[in-house]
Amino acid sequence: xxxxxxxxxxxxxxxxxxxxxxxxxxxxxxxxxxxxxxxxxxxxxxxxxxxxxxxxxxxxxxxxxxxxxxxxxxxxxxxxxxxxxxxxxxxxxxxxxxxxxxxxxxxxxxxxxxxxxxxxxxxxxxxxxxxxxxxxxxxxxxxxxxxxxxxxxxxxxxxxxxxxxxxxxxxxxxxxxxxxxxxxxxxxxxxxxxxxxxxxxxxxxxxxxxxxxxxxxx
Length: 218
Known about the structure:
Elements: H1 2-23, H2 26-45, H3 53-70, H4 74-95, H5 105-127, H6 133-159, H7 163-187, H8 197-217
Helix pairs in contact: 1-2, 1-8, 2-3, 2-8, 3-4, 4-6, 5-6, 6-7, 7-8
């Protein structure tokens, strides 16, 4: 079926892109990265009986973020962050109708409050020596948006225990991991392991695939 063709193409292009990351081949990375989200969008469109255009929109904002982050310069990096922040807002809009606000949601909210404080604090400690204060504040604000998206994904999973919501939650967590790694790659030059874009893109490509598959199965 057509959807499997696009899924195979997405996985194949992801593998080639990751190979380019390992080899530090900028030509391969620049060629493959803009192809990832369009292939994922076609996979989604051909996998569902009725297309939810919010899902297509969040893939589109992610594509825009991918392209903007490919351009060197802090201005483009910030604009890419704004595009991905729009992705998080769209995801939250998709989660909200599936959330039941009851007693089990309270421990989830408290857990994410603790985890988000620990995560943001850790990122600040790691990067404060390498980044201006204004940049750090923007970075933390963006990560807070990602954590908020993860919170709503967790609330959806608690409210609707099924394969779709579980995949979305796992994808959201990988999306958060990818963003945290990205900041370390960009700014903390004393962590050689984190300079490898392979780690960023591995978590990112898996995150987007799991989120989209979650909406397909939902």
